[in-house]
Amino acid sequence: MAEHHFLLKADWHGGRNSTGFIDAGGLKAEISIPKEMDGPGVGTNPDEMLLGAAATCYLITLAAMLERAKIPVSQLKLESEGIVEVEQGVFTYKKIIHRPKVTLTAEADGKDVEKARQLAERAEKSCMISRAVQGNVELQVEAEIGTAEE
Fold this sequence. Notes:
Layout: E1 9-12, E2 20-23, E3 28-31, H1 46-68, E4 73-87, E5 90-104, H2 110-126, H3 128-133, E6 138-141, E7 144-147
Helix pairs in contact: 1-2
């Protein structure tokens, strides 16, 4: 069994409304509480990073599944939305919605389109980050699958 270890170092400069910095190898960013939550809104924040982790994991997983299935993809785009609920001062990450837009090449047929649609749903359940938050955050996929014009 292989294990992979990832290290993040953080530096924080004060109280709640201060700023900090994280360094996780390829991810280096200023951090703070977002303006929407009455923070300074400097750099990124945990809400964006959780959404980013879920979205990039989903996108990479979907791309790999489409490739393995030999689906002729022309373009793959993704928009993801995170929904945070505030109730009695308690912040809860409620839902992540992935909206992939998969454009297949002009040679793709109806079977390719249907298989791509199935894989768009399956990728969310296969992604490591999705499995990590499963049961705590609702995950939803709203896929748009089409073919390129000839």
